Amino acid sequence: MFAPALFADTKPVAHLATGDVPWPVVAAVAAAVVGFGILMLVVKRYKRCPSNRVLVVYGKTGGGNAAKCVHGGAAFVYPLIQDYAYLSLDPIQIEVPLKGALSIENIRVNVPSVFTVAIGTDPEVMQNAAIRLLGLDTGAIKQQAGDIIFGQLRQVIASMRIEEINRDRDKFLENIQKSLEMELKKIGLVLINVNITDITDESGYIEAIGRKAAAVAIQQAKIDVAEQEKKGQIGIAEAEREKDIAVANATKLREIGTREATREQAIKVAQLDKDRTVGEQTAKLEQEALVKEAQRLQAIRVAELDRDQKIGEQQAVFEREARIAEADRDKRVRLAEANARAVGGESAAQADVATAHATLAVRKAEAYQLAETKKREAEAAVLEAQNRAMAKAALADAERIEAEKRAALEAPAKAEKAKMIVDAEAAAERTKLEAQAEAATIFARLEAEARGQYEILAKKGEGLKKVIEACGGAQPAFQLLMLEHLDALAAASAQAISNIKFDKIVVWEGGGSGDTSKTAGFLQDMARVMPPMLQVMKDVGGVEMPEYFAKLIGDAPAAKEPPATNGKPV
Questions:
Q1: Cβ atoms within 10 A of the Cβ of 93, count?
Q2: pTM for the structure as a whole
Q3: Cys bridge to 562: 144, 515, 516, 532, which one at CB 3.0-4.6 A?
Q4: Rounded Cα distance, 129 and 106, in Å
Q5: Is the dihedral of CA 393, 396, 401, 402 positive or negative?
Q6: What is the pLDDT of residues 27-38, one digit of tens each?
């Protein structure tokens, strides 16, 4: 029974083991392999960009850009049509040992500096860096940036004066940044920092400016120190004067207050002594009156007690006799004993009562006396304290009023005095500054004029030296210069007599004294003057006059002969 069933179940299994694998399984495995390959390709081609780099995807990127730049993100790089590279964002330091750059004043300046640049992260800057710097090492980037920095730095120095470069470093750096940023941006770099190590020049101009500034600063510091010492001495003197015045016023007020307090104290002590004496006498009289009143009351009370005691005793005796008389019979002894005990107890009780009343009266009198005395002493002490407080309050009120009046009078005076001192110091300082400024102006003007005169005289001396060398000596040079100025001297002489009009010259000869006429004397004088004058012209100016002047000189002594009359020669 069981064999057919067994064989029936095992046949399909044998068929599956010996037959082919179904195609759906193969398709699933192939799809899984393909999917895994695609996944690995996607994972491999999906590139992440670190924060210190820029991912540049180049190839067919689309959008009209030569490359796609990614910073701080990721991008998928398509195989075959795209590839990628990285640009480092690390800062690059470029040392620029600039020497001999011409400033606007044509003075050569040495400006060694260190520039720190890096690739920018703006989209436009990253595009420029991807186009111009991709694939270059750090040395090549330094070379390109250094050339740009050299040129722009020279351009900035050429547009500024040395004093501006040395004094206003912020403006110098700002001009450098403005000039460099646009140029560096073109190759994809940004300027991070500029460090100017030193600024020197070949002519020593900057050092001279420093010495001048130091001298001016030292001079100004000395002036400030002298001014502060002057103010300090003035302030010390004012403080000493005010201290002396305040001490004198305080001493005066202290002496016045002491004397017033001593006087008030003496008056108050005398008043208190008087009140104390009157109080003591009054208390003594009241005490004596109270003592006498207490003694009188005590005597009256004792008499009354004695009287009552006697009456009681008599009544007791009477009652006892009556009782004894009434108890004559068998109770006489007992009644007598009882009456005796009763009388003794009553007497003792009455005596105790009388003693207690007397003691109470005495203690009441003493307590009243002590209470009245303490009351009067307390009232006197209270009155004394009130009077002292009123005196102190009056003295404090007087001091307060005096202080208020003194403050009201002294405050405007002190304010006016301080204002006058400040105004005087300000006027003195203004006058001093104006005088210093005027002196500096005059000194600068005179120094400039002296420098100009010195230059003129120096150039004139050099010119005269060359003239002397050219003429072969000082005397010929002097004569040449005199000849050059002869026309000016003649023009000046002609100008001096140009306004004098000579229509004609009339000589009146009225004869002379002795044998010589006035005309002859004039000619003789002119003849005597001409030789030395002509000699001077020859010696000084090198001018030699014509021969007829020499003949005139030779004939001049003939004028000394006496004139002839009546056919004799004149």
A1: 12
A2: 0.35
A3: 515
A4: 37
A5: positive
A6: 888 888 888 777
Instruction: Please provide the distance, in angstroms rounded to a whole number, between the alpha carbons at the two ends of the chain.
Output: 210
| Interacting residues of 308 by C-beta distance below 8 A, sequence separation 6+ | 350
Residues sharing a CB contact under 8 Å with residue 513, sequence separation 6 or more, in sequence order: none
Strand runs labelled E in 64-107: 67-70, 74-76, 82-88, 92-102
Is residue 559 within 8 A of residue 525, CB to CB? The reply is no
Alpha helices in 54-97 (DSSP H): none
Is 85 in contact with 134 (CB distance < 8 Å)? yes
Higher pLDDT, 337 or 57: 57
Distances (CA, A) of 459 to 142, 155, 475: 54, 37, 21
- The amino acid occupying position 305 is L
Q: Which tokens is 140 given?
A: 């090549």
Q: What share of the chain is helix, strand, coil (3-state, %, to 5)?
A: 75, 10, 15
Q: What is the pLDDT of residues 536-556, one digit of tens each?
A: 666 655 556 655 555 554 444
Instruction: Kindly report the backbone phi and psi dihedral angles of residue 16, in degrees, each rounded to the nearest multiple of 5, phi listed first.
Output: -70, -35
Selection from 456, 299, 268 nearest residue 362 by Cα: 299
Whose tokens are 């064989």? That residue is 7
Q: Of the candidates 365, 358, 350, which has an alpha carbon nearest to the alpha carbon of residue 302? A: 358
In this predicted structure, what is the pLDDT of residue 92?
A: 92
Q: How far apart are CA 488 and CA 481, in angstroms?
A: 12
Residues 248 and 254: their CA atoms lie apart, in Å, by 10
- Tokens 């799809």 belong to 31
The Cα 536–Cα 546 span in angstroms is 15
* Residue 539 amino acid letter: D
Q: Using a pLDDT cut of 70, give the percent of the chain over it.
A: 76
Distance CA 346, CA 249 (A): 88
Distance from C-alpha of 254 to C-alpha of 379, rounded to nearest angstrom = 33
Cα dihedral 14, 15, 17, 22 in deg (nearest 10) = -160
pLDDT tens digits along 214-256? 777 787 877 888 788 888 888 888 888 888 888 888 888 888 8
Beta bridge partners of residue 194, listed in sequence order? 115
Handedness of CA 510, 512, 517, 519 (dihedral sign): negative
* Closest to 94 measured CA to CA, from 129, 145, 133, 140: 145
Q: What confidence score (pLDDT) does residue 556 get?
A: 45
- Buried b / exposed e along 58-67 (16+ C-beta atoms within 10 A): beebeeeeeb
Q: What are phi and psi of 276, to 5 degrees?
A: -65, -45
314/322 Cα distance (integer angstroms)? 12
236: exposed, middle or buried (C-beta count within 10 Å: 0-12, 13-18, 19+)?
A: exposed
Task: Give the alpha-carbon dihedral of 534, 540, 543, 546, to 10 degrees.
Answer: 10
Instruction: Specify the residue for token string 């030292």.
Output: 218
Q: Can you say how many angstroms the Cα of residue 107 is from the centroid of all Cα atoms in its chain?
A: 37
Neighbours of 552 (CB within 10 A): 17
From CA 194, how far away is CA 156, in angstroms rounded?
14
Model confidence band, residue 9 (pLDDT cutoffs 50, 70, 90)? very low
Give the DSSP letter of residue 21.
P
